[in-house]
Specification:
The structure is a homodimer of 459-residue chains.
Chain A (H helix, E strand, L loop, with lengths): L12 E13 L7 E10 L2 E7 H7 E8 L3 E5 L1 E6 L15 H16 L2 H17 L2 E8 L2 H11 L2 E8 L10 H14 L6 E7 L7 H13 L4 E5 L3 H11 L3 H7 L7 E5 L5 H9 L3 E4 L1 H6 L7 H6 L3 E4 L12 H16 L7 H15 L17 E5 L11 H8 L5 E6 L2 E5 L2 E2 L4 H22 L6
Parallel strand pairs in A: 1-4, 1-5, 6-7, 7-8, 8-9, 9-10, 10-11, 11-12, 12-13
Antiparallel strand pairs in A: 1-2, 2-3, 5-14, 14-15, 15-16, 16-17
Chain lengths: 459, 459
Amino acid sequence: MKPRDTDTPFPMTPADLLIENALVVTMDKDFRVIENGAVAVGGNRLLGVGTTRDLKEQFRPERCIDGRRKLVLPGLVNTHTHSPMTIYRGFADDIPLREWLYDHIFPIEAIFTDPENVRAGTRLAIAEMLLSGTTTFNDMYYYVDEMARVVAQSGMRAVLNETIIDSPAPNSPTPAEGLAIANGLIENWNGHPLVTIGIGAHAPYSVAADLVRQTKALADRHHLPFNIHVAETRWEFEKILRQHGATPVQYLHGLDVLSPNMVAAHCVHLTEEDIGLLGTHGVGIAHNPQCNMKLGNGIAPIPQLLKMGAKVGIGTDGAASNNDLDMFDEMRSAALSHKLSSGDPTVMDARSVVEAATMGGARVLGMDGQIGSLTVGKKADLIVLDMDKPHAFPFYNIYSLIVYSLRGSDVDSVMVDGRMLVEGRKLLTLDIERLYDKLGRIARQIKKEAGKLGIVNHH
Amino acid sequence: MKPRDTDTPFPMTPADLLIENALVVTMDKDFRVIENGAVAVGGNRLLGVGTTRDLKEQFRPERCIDGRRKLVLPGLVNTHTHSPMTIYRGFADDIPLREWLYDHIFPIEAIFTDPENVRAGTRLAIAEMLLSGTTTFNDMYYYVDEMARVVAQSGMRAVLNETIIDSPAPNSPTPAEGLAIANGLIENWNGHPLVTIGIGAHAPYSVAADLVRQTKALADRHHLPFNIHVAETRWEFEKILRQHGATPVQYLHGLDVLSPNMVAAHCVHLTEEDIGLLGTHGVGIAHNPQCNMKLGNGIAPIPQLLKMGAKVGIGTDGAASNNDLDMFDEMRSAALSHKLSSGDPTVMDARSVVEAATMGGARVLGMDGQIGSLTVGKKADLIVLDMDKPHAFPFYNIYSLIVYSLRGSDVDSVMVDGRMLVEGRKLLTLDIERLYDKLGRIARQIKKEAGKLGIVNHH
């Protein structure tokens, strides 16, 4: 091999980091999978994605990471969760949704939803999500300002939606005050590199028509995501049908809110017409298979929605209904649940599932120009998985391996916006030990109050 | 506190090990859960199970393990797998079972099922199972003598069943030779502390009536488990109905083989009458929810079988159809799949699922007097899980935590028959690095042959 000509007409580009010798699954439009692949990062951007040989000729990195027997993937996008609810993980299980929500979750939330608990719960959620490979999450809750500060400190990326609801919310006695809070958030967090503010209307059954429209108008005015739970339960479907003579989707269509900036969580109970409406209006679907299964709600018609061109992402929902925030686990359930409900093992093949968890989620959040694939110029949000484990060996199809064999615990390193947040399975930006102490105290208080209310999880 | 009287009338019992200060979930008949619990082990037996305070007064252990923030559970029992098939992990996915079996798995198995590959695949399977908390597995395959030696070396516990089938098997051109092999195995491994030999008839559609009866007779003569795949697919159900005018279960009942030593894998397609027959004859059911979902076969009516008093265990099936051997993952799927198929979130509650994965599995294998719960006098088969993880925090119900939040990767230590096989997530009895090299070579050969046969996993 002759030495490199130092007077080369193509001088090497400086880079902060080169991950080399890895298996790189790009999830780009050509679904490139690069053996002996490499990724170059500079600032918060991806500078290069290609073979190790090519990138080593092109870049002069400050630091190299050896990716031998490692897999590099775009960071996963969790399109629907309520992260502060980690403090209620496993609080009420194996019961129907309405009982779960009205007899257990709402009463305990009424006591414990305050800024301190929101901060602690969000921190715990971020720790769990980062350690299992999620780099962006989309959240509907209250005290969003508290959440946003935790997100910014942690270095994770998030879309955070103050939730508007008819009934008094923990931080706003009236919906008008909720909207005022949302307005303030939009102003305060405008232009933040990690935090995007959005807005949520709780659900068609819990938010009056006018308020749904106002919430949507606020989102549109600022070009923000508009979130809403839609057709999660049979009960909701029938209630809306009874009250409005229309399915939940058709009712929302009548309110003129179906649009590409809408993120519709669940969408379990849909008619053929509903599926068509969601597809043609470019609505983003947040598919939460584990939560939908666990609460006995059924499963969203995702293969049909994909066929109609709908944007589909995957979400974990909150830890009080799932009971984890692990997107690998959720991908596996997404693949398996549709094969069960349809009896067709070819639906939701592994690659489609990985796409939903990456680019699909980015599209749902309107961020597909910035994240979701390993594409030069996009934000450097990526995860590195360790394949040196018995359950990861051997493999014949990388998408099958990701969906059916790998786990969140195989995530070794996580980068968001060009910054390493996890390395060697250790969190670099969160002090988890101090958090456990605090959460232990909160959980003991919750147990005590649950005892008084007679809503302990006994079975 | 006054000093202990050294002339106490109850002298302390020597023990090899005391795990102390742990949360002990016994899965015994009273479902005892012991906070600040302890387990004392002597030889290959459990000497004590109780509070740390009580056991420290009772035992004088050689070694203590601090179980603070750790969970001690009986080792999990995987009631149905084909461990050597790990070499085909992810070889053919997202296709229907008959295509999977006849066009992909059978042709590649015909080339690669030899003693060396069986040993390598079994070793990989044992590594994966131990690291994810399984201490006993029930296996149907070929070259069982090779498997048995690997099991004995590894220190794991297993029931190993030479599989009888009409067509030529990899190690026996005729069923008669298969039965002769089984006879030899029974003789050679008689009385082994870890290996129990059983016998398997492949399935009602692949084994002639007389051969099913002969296989069962051999099992009965030696008081061994008799394994068979039953009613896994709609195709099988209809074929047997057409050929014999009976459902697979009724057909087997007609052959007089339904009995308590029968382990029936799958049992997806059952009539009410079938459910009754399996229950009243005390047949053990090996429930494999992930495999059944993944191949689009549906889901076994487990809640109904439990109601009829059937013994139910959980199995992963082989890694070529699942694609992992992780019983935690399988427990979660067992809980979620039935809630999806029934729409009832109360079925297969978390405790029932943990029971199926421990005592239920032990009953299915006829080993409930020896394993399946942390009960004094039983074999010391136990696992220790690390709860110091964000996804394990907080918890309100320990069974919910185990099923819905914990993962195989939370397993820190594994003991089988009183011997530590995993500690600090490291395998103590298997050299995994050397295994990877060998498996890499096998996988490359498999890929090459799959290419020639035109059966590469492309999608």
